[in-house]
Amino acid sequence: MVIDKGKSPQRSRLAVAGARAATESIYSTGSITDRVGNVLFRSLLLLGMGFALLGLASILIWALVEGAPRLDLNLIVEGPSTITPETAGYRGAILGSLYVIGGVVLFIVPVGVGAAIYLEEYADKTRWWNRAIEVNIQNLAAVPSIVFGILGLAFIVRGPLSLGFVAAAGSLTLSLLVLPTIILSAREAIKAVPSSTRLGSLGLGATQWQTIWHHVLPGALPGILTGLILAVSRAIGEAAPLLLVGAVTFVTFDPSFWEGNYSVLPVQIFNYAGRPQEEFRVLAAAGVILMLAVLLSMNSFAIWLRNHYENKNRK
Length: 315
Description:
By secondary structure, this protein is an all-alpha fold. It has helices spanning 7-27, 32-67, 74-77, 91-122, 128-140, 145-157, 167-192, 195-203, 208-237, 240-244, 265-273, 278-314. Helix 4 runs parallel beside helix 7.
């Protein structure tokens, strides 16, 4: 067989030119109307993003300026008080938030990741119940948070579980709220692991579970941690569902997970902001900065953990 070496570069150039022309035909603007539409669409996107960032920056600057006189150690170590508002703090609310968020993490990681593994690795997509589960999970991700508060009040606080108005009830309610987020993100992370990894492991004689545990999950861990960051970020700022499951009390003692009343940072800020005294309003503004610091600390740890496993996977 004779290979004409002179025609090969020409065919390559023609193929490259054809691919470039096809790509440019998709993304290029064919008329003045299309170019104007693209410019207007891009301008609207930048305008919306600018308004969002401006609003967020305005809130943070206002909270920082307004709450600056109360950004001291008492803000963390002291509990709420109506007698001495100038030295009152968020100690009980900080502990309540840590209890609630800790319970959320302990619940959603095994349940959410387990559900994602089943749906991606074991579930038969042709069965109607598996398709029904997928559709319900996607729909639950868009349900308003107040609906989960009503669900928690009916089934966790008073219903079959009857836990009462304790931090465990708030933790389970928030877990149901953010569970679809962790399931969807974990499924995408597991799906992104190359199938060659699975086939190679199975070809060497490993079982399916050994393949998942030793190869798929370590590869998907950075994506799962990203979903966990999003879920915890949403949970720590939620107040509406917790208002229905007991976190409205003005708690002056350290809360417990299974018994006694509790409060969390968003609800405590809401309580302080609704009081007429000026000292409480300053305390509420300082609480916004405190909650932001707690959120950034938890997210920073999760981001460090994700980057650690990303670097480990690259090696």
